[in-house]
## 1
Amino acid sequence: MIIKGEGAPVIYLHGPFGQEWDGFLDDLAAHRRVYAPAHAGAEETEDLEQLDGLPDLILYYDDLFDRLGLERVDLIGHSFGGMVAAEYAATFRDRVRKLVLIDAMGLWARRRSGRRPSAGSPQKLVKLLFHDPSKPEVAAKIAIPVEREAMDAAIVNRFGALASTSHFIHPIPERCLKRRLRRIKAETLVLWGAQDALVPPSYAAEFAALIPNARVEMIQKAGHVPQIEQRKIVSEHLARFFTDLPQAK
């Protein structure tokens, strides 16, 4: 777990490729105390022996928040982490003050189901994740260390994170989340990369329609990871949404 900053607590749940401290979390940590845990199994695969499925992961996070002394929090989830965040907010309705879903997985329709994050070559995956892979921010994100030991560690970490995600959504990712979204009490912001090729942008409106107090902001010129490609814009949206934050400069 990475913890930075001071102020009211906000929790960030990462996507299927592992926990890394991104620049937009630095923006957030300038005014909040940010907790960024790794999903169970993403770093230590042995953890998965104790958790049978997604409901266990939701309880795992509730136990974790108890141990951290966090009674009521703001919750941000990206991709698979967005699916987990939505499930948590629907289950523990009074514990989440505000909810942010960034290109969240969890809603599934055959006509626009999206693609599996583990499918295809690394080159194809980059094109699925990013609108403009040539941007310096993207190049820095996808770079593999040249030093052999660091390279091996990076590859193992990414594989472990994907294995963790697969553990909780295999073999059928449909978990009927859409039936539970109505239970969410938290004010919700749905952020979505307008050019997301992994999880189609049409899902953004569906999330907003199913969550009682939700709205959508589409991030132009961004794929599945808008907080990397359009960090400033995403940080500005978060600043406005979390009303106790000043506007990003």
## 2
Amino acid sequence: MQIAARSRMLAAQLYVITPDAPPEHVVELAAAAARGGADIIQLRHKGLARGELLMLARNLREIASSSGAIFIVNDHVDIALLSGADGVHLGSDDLSLASARRVAGDRLLIGASASTPAAALAAIAEGADYLGSGPAFATPIKSEKPVIGPEGIAAIAAAAGAVPVFAIGGIDESNLGRLTAVGLRRACVIRAVAEASDPESATRRLRAMLDDR
């Protein structure tokens, strides 16, 4: 599975992360993002009991599978494995990449966060399959982190070489062009889709803005 998933990850451009919201709304948003052409859908929910989170993960896995999108679970390696996800994204407070790889073997793609080229290289050395880097712009979700801007993310992408780097943090239709202007064609969004009046159309527009073909 991982060879195919790695190939799809290399081709991916738009990465949509779900918000903390009632499960039925998360399902609706994920389905809209899938219809709109999201390449990756990540389940990120901090407020659900683990049984509910697993049920939601399985629902989103079905949605992603039906559209050909990669499905990622945030934080929880066990939930990712039990739901049949393609991968897991780990933050600095989660299981280490090396530990996650020992648990998951080659069954999961493993993503990490990096806000400097040095952190990116360290994560890659530990086995990260892709990176989320930012914040690209100011965002209330990560208000405590200093903004590194498009140029900072471009430096990380250059250091990462062939490992995909997705810009994250405050990205929407009004500023996505600042990323593509410095050659960045991969982006993660949350509010740009979750708070849109028409999430499917918003996803489609964002995906088109990233397409370099």
## 3
Amino acid sequence: MIPVNEPRLSGKELEYVTECLQTGWISSEGRFIEAFERGWAEYCGMPHGVAVCNGTAALELAVACLGLQPGDEVILPSFTIISCVLAVLYSGATPVLVDSDPRTWCMDVSQVEAKITPRTRALMPVHIYGHPADMDPLIALAEKHHLTIIEDAAEAHGAEYRGRRCGGLGELSCFSFYANKIVTTGEGGMVLARDASHADRLRSLRNLCFRKERRFYHTELGHNFRLTNIQAALGLAQLEGIEAALEQKRWMGTAYTSRLAALDGLQLPVEESWAKNVYWMYGLVLDERLGVDAAEFARRLSARGIMTRPFFLGMHEQPVLHERGLFKDEKYPVAEKLARQGLYLPSGLTLTKAQLDEVCTGVEAEWQNLNR
């Protein structure tokens, strides 16, 4: 099978991890933690970085440090991973959904202002599959209504919006460094903060809210969301090779598009004039007129030795959220189409030209079968 993703570990990962093992700095203290936090924050154009154990934890801490109250609201897209909604719910606030832009698959910013109420406290744009959300209109709304922007940039390492890197556009931004991300620590994440007080708050919440003046004396509840020095060592080595990784991703996106653009009925990823798409995953959306959904198309590709993954199922269609009285009878047509008709192709950093050609040959063959 051609895998959907494989990490590329071709830099100083082994050297740095070996240093951790030889020196004994294997837990949540050590030189690589600060170096990775500082390096990633600088890369994204933010002053503060706080490393955590995964991207979901990053979202939870980012929302938690705002001090939201029951009844407060956060606006986010339905088409995203459930971690975004979890972060809002765990804070005691209420998630409010909008649909997706049919071209970029990111949140439809034209729908946001109508969802703003006196209870709205934050906006959470999600940069989907490597393409940025349209941020300037959101920033204008945030300034107008005194809202905080929390970017979910988990899938957009190195992506750019009007020349600025994703993760450097809001007050807070969140990253995942899971094994399938462009920069990986195996598991891991980070919150970037523009304000020093937010960064201090994040560090406290990450580490059980220990008091500086008295370690085991607690006046509030926190989390154990620390990243290890070993993971940070991996991350720093990955950061050093990010430009080569981005070059590989953009080659992949261009090559797929060149081969598949002529196939009528397949919507391919776009790159808007104001964006730099890093093609974290290369997605396809099948026109319903082809007569199959993404699940069936995936089965056909699997029979040819090609692994795929489905797109997200919208938050408004999640049974576990319906059980909590959320989003019942809400409809988001673009998110629904993406969920039913969307899948992504092998997109890892180890993907070879021969593998990419084989994937395209398989997609072309199944497209021809559907058009006979």
## 4
Amino acid sequence: MKALVQDIYGTSAVLRLEEVERPEPAAGEVLVRIAAASVNAADWHIMRGEPKVARLMDRSIFGRTGPRERIRGRDFAGTIDAIGPGVAGWQVGDPVLGEDNATLAQYAAVDQSCLARKPDALSFEEAAAMPLAAVTADLCLSRGGVEAGHRVLVIGASGGVGTFAVQLAGVRGATVTAVCSTRNIDMVTSLGAAQVVDYTRDDFTRAGPSYDVVLDLVGNRSLRDLRRVVAAGGRLVLSGGGNPGHGEYLGPIGLMAKAGLFGRILGLRVQIPRAEPDAERLTELADMAARGEIRPVIDRIYPLTDAVEAIRHLEVEHARGKIVVTIE
């Protein structure tokens, strides 16, 4: 089968499409024939081995000179092609979506615990855009305690997680202010943002209002800057991944460490969610999308033959919403 692989850390230039052996599902796994996958910040973090401190923190993902898993990709949507021993509740031919490893490939062996059933109302491309981004957005809002009447600031509102966060905060009854660049103002407004701050023109941390929940999905501002926009008794939720090539040693981990150490001193209630695959939450979110309550925002769709360009687009050009890769 064809898969997008790498052997050493680096930019998207280290990626290549290669013929590899098709996996066999182990106990508790199913083999999914991938119809579509999407790319996430996690892909370039692992591809680059950034921030470098992460190579010391998680040896299950990061090797010394390259990732332990050669095949890139996390999100997927497709149909079950084979069932491994001990799998219950799934059949060959079932349409599914989920989050696991090595999904930028024609087939992937994935754990049954990460699977959600794809609603008929969603295309494979729409379904593939959801798992990591939608689940992360919903988790961040839950950890922030977002509820009706709250004022919520979403920093990085035009990205994959951000576009879901804006919508899901609105579903919860919150009033959302979105931070994005000029070209994305109309898009985030269409998703339900009541106000928009154009960071290319205005500094949202200076002389602006404060918010009950501040969701930072970028990670390029200081803790003191962020403190200025959190209302008394409010919460700061940190889930920013930084930008490729910036802060390559510590990246947003430095901000999170400072928040853990000094948050209370500065009067901040800080939440740092660790997003994990969550099939139950993903099932609920996919059903919401099928009902039209939220929608995946897809910037561009690439074929697997152009998967290197798909990751380069995410890495360099700051995608609006999600980048999806279709797989034949």
